[in-house]
Amino acid sequence: DLYRKVFVFRKDPSDAYVVLRAQLEQPLHNFTVCLRSYTDLSRPHSLFSYATKAQDNEILLFKPKPEEYRFYVGGKFVTFRVPEGRRDWEHVCASWESATGIAEFWLNGKPWPRKGLQRGYTVGATAAILLGQEQDSFGGGFDFYNSFSGELTDVYLWDTGLSPDKMRAAFLSLRLPPALLAWKSLSYEVKGDVVVKPRLRE
């Protein structure tokens, strides 16, 4: 149980990462991914990387610069421009719906304008899911200058699009529906220099 704990990625740049294990029975037609990060990086870095053998950027949350997030589904991406952070924790949720191709992006409990992405696509179920690196091949192919350095917590993946109420609940760390990946019952393996520590503050 990682409640009130964080992964600290200590080095910059880094070869470290965390492997997450999710039980996916079938491909995804909808999903939501949420996480909270704390970093002073200004270079590009990967937050959440979900690769299949067919597509290395099947789901990717990537931050190319401090005022921009990129959300990939099936190798295509949309960009969400954000105010440059105040060097504080940032909570992001990104959701996607195959039927409409609607991509939602929420930052610190607030929605950004929705965008269109990969309508009719299906996300593969056999995946390598990593925190801290961006995969250029299944489970590998890292560019260490896209690595994450800092603190990550509250990582979730659902096989549905969350309602606005639940998006806000994720930001506030309130009760959430059962998830494929849930921070409070996370199955994970640390590879390299990543330390689990208590959160410094709420």
From TrEMBL:
Keywords, A to Z, come to: Acute phase, Calcium, Disulfide bond, Metal-binding, Secreted, Signal
Cofactor(s) for this UniProt protein: Ca(2+)
Q: Name one GO biological process term.
A: innate immune response
Q: Where in the cell is it found?
A: Secreted
GO cellular component, alphabetical, reads:
extracellular space
Tell me the ranges covered by the Pentraxin (PTX) domain, including all copies. 3-202
Q: What does the cofactor field's note say?
A: Binds 2 calcium ions per subunit.
Q: InterPro entries of this UniProt entry? A: ConA-like_dom_sf, Pentaxin_CS, Pentraxin_domain, PTX_dom
**Alphabetical list of Gene3D superfamilies matching this protein:** 2.60.120.200
Known Pfam families for this protein?
Answer: Pentaxin (PF00354)
Q: Which GO terms describe its molecular function?
A: complement component C1q complex binding; metal ion binding
Q: Which residues form a coiled coil?
A: none
What SMART domains is this protein classified in? PTX (SM00159)
Cysteine disulfide partners in this protein: C34-C93
Please tell me whether the keyword Acyltransferase is annotated for this protein.
no
The entry's family comment says: Belongs to the pentraxin family.
PANTHER family attached to this UniProt entry: C-REACTIVE PROTEIN (PTHR45869:SF7), C-REACTIVE PROTEIN-RELATED (PTHR45869)
Quaternary structure, per UniProt, is: Homopentamer. Pentaxin (or pentraxin) have a discoid arrangement of 5 non-covalently bound subunits.
What protein name applies here?
A: Pentraxin family member
| Biological source species | Cnemophilus loriae
Q: What is the lineage of its organism?
A: Eukaryota, Metazoa, Chordata, Craniata, Vertebrata
